[in-house]
Amino acid sequence: MAVRLRADAERNRIALLAAAREVFSEQGLEASLDEIARRAGVGNATLYRRFPTRQDLIAAVFADRKATHVDLGDRALAQPDAWQGFVGYVTGLCEMQAENRGLGELLVTVNFDGDERLTQLRATSQRRAREVIQRAQKAGALRLDFDLDDLWRILMANAGVLERSQDPKAWRRQLTLVLEGLAPR
Question: Could you tell me if 34 and 66 lie in one domain?
Answer without folding.
Answer: no
